[in-house]
Amino acid sequence: MSWYKIEFTAEEAAAGKHATLKDGFEEIYFPLGAPVEMALFARMLNERGNSEYYFSPACSVNSFMKALIDSFKGTLCEAPKKNDNAPISRQLALIIGHDDAWDMLS
Question: How many beta carbons lie within 10 A of that of residue 8, not counting itself?
Fold first, then answer.
């Protein structure tokens, strides 16, 4: 199982694409009973000024969640780093998921 990342430019975020992604995640996640192994993380600003959204590996094996990832052209990636010492805008945030989801990160 692999991590997936979706990146939005500032223009795409301003157009609400990130909200559409979050809503889509919620529409799948909660009817599944909020699985502990599924989580959505985000970093609001990366080094290019874009926002990044990360899907935990369990998301890639659920057909509905994988279809959501594919619809936003998600790409395989490494597990995100917490970056606790970075400025707040560059820190990773748990958007949807259980607090235990932090344990999935290195």
Answer: 19
User: Could you say which DSSP state residue 70 is in?
Assistant: H
Q: Could you tell me if 59 and 2 are in contact, meaning their C-beta atoms sit under 8 angstroms apart?
A: no
Alpha-carbon distance of 42 to 93, in angstroms, equals: 5
User: Which residue matches tokens 């999935």?
Assistant: 104
Residue 91 parent element (H or E): none
Specify the pLDDT at position 14.
85
pLDDT digits (tens, 9 = 90+) for 62-85: 999 999 999 999 999 999 988 766
3-state secondary structure of 102: helix
Inter-axis angle of helices 63-71 and 17-29, nearest 10: 170
Residue 5 forms beta bridges with which residues?
Answer: 54, 75
Other beta carbons within 10 Å of 39: 25
Q: Extract the residue ranges of the chain whose pLDDT is less than 50.
A: none
